[in-house]
Amino acid sequence: MPEKPVHVMEGHQQDAVGCCFIHNVGGWEGGKIMCTVSKDSTLRLWDADGGGCLGVHEEEGSGMWTSVRCWDGEIEKEGGGIGGGGIEEFHMGVPHLVATTFYGGIYIFTVFPEDNGKGRRGLGMKAVNLVRPIVENEYEMGVDTVPLPTAI
User: Which domain holds residue 28?
Assistant: First the structure.
């Protein structure tokens, strides 16, 4: 373990509570990518080699994030239950981020390269599926992003 941090990644307004590395983003020719989630209700994508922020995402109504994991279809080709049909419903070989919220939401995001409007390439993400609590012990699944209630 190095004595000093390799990079200090600044941008979250509150504690970062989860992080993961993202693999095989199609069309991305940059270096390694890392995602962090925070109590500030944002997910951030980072250049893991240089430490710069590549993208920020705030999902309306999600609230505070609690964890994130990269789900790479090339690595994990088995599974089931999500959306009723297993991971084959998602694009195999395209990385997905699975992120959870304090309010019990489970979001699945795709990550893709995009122009940030300032002449620089960045990364974006879009929610492609969501499982959210409706009432205690009942859940609703949807393909589109559905805001979480402010109080459960």
Answer: 16-142
Reported as a single tens digit per residue, the pLDDT across 72-117 is: 665 444 444 444 444 444 455 567 888 998 888 888 888 888 876 6
Residue 9 within a domain: no
Q: Contacts from 59-63 at CB under 8 Å and sequence distance 24+?
A: 59/107, 59/127, 59/145, 60/145, 60/147, 61/147, 61/148, 61/149, 61/150, 62/101, 62/103, 62/105, 62/107, 62/147, 62/148, 63/101, 63/102, 63/103, 63/105, 63/148, 63/150
> Does some domain include residue 150?
no
Report yes or no on whether pTM surpasses 0.85. no
51 belongs to a structural domain: yes
Whether residue 87 is contained in a domain is answered as yes
